[in-house]
Amino acid sequence: MIVDPRLVWKENRAFAHHGYWECFREGFYTKTCDHSREIILLSQLLLQSPERFAERCAETIRTWPISAAVHLSNGSINRRAWLGQSACYVAHGACPECTKAAWRSMTEDQQNEANRIATEAMEKWATEPATSPQPNRQLDFPF
């Protein structure tokens, strides 16, 4: 279980002031990029590479533990989108808009595969004792 005084857990959901979110502190929500074709292509290639995308999802969860806890335990947001956009940001500094542009250029099969990988990473996060809100308890992923 994540034990961090900056996190408050209520009914399997983590809460923390946004100033503690690693993603916020690193500029995920404020960074704008030049929307270059290169950044969009890098995001598309990452999202289309199952092994690399899985590695980056795991890296994002590991390096942003408070952000991961807050966002992945929040059932009212699109957690797969947050994880995919965050993984692209961690991998090569892509702003969320560039990742969305990359997503729109992918086929439905490619999107489904990326969603499957993100879901697996979230399930692993939810059930691993070192990161889960409650060890051996599955969070509700209704998708």
Instruction: Name the helix and strand elements from N-terminus to C-terminus, one letter apiece.
Output: EEHHHHHHH
Shape: globular
Mean pLDDT: 88
Rg result: 15 Å
Structural class designation: mainly alpha
Residue share in helix: 55-70%
What report would you give on this structure?
With 143 residues, this protein is mainly alpha-helical. The chain has a domain of 94 residues. Helix content is 57%, strand content 4%. It is built from seven helices and two strands. It has a two-stranded antiparallel sheet. A hairpin with a 2-residue loop joins β1 and β2. α3 crosses α4, α3 packs across α5 and α5 crosses α7. The radius of gyration is 15 Å and the shape is globular.
Short description:
This protein is mainly alpha-helical and 143 residues long. It contains seven helices and two strands.
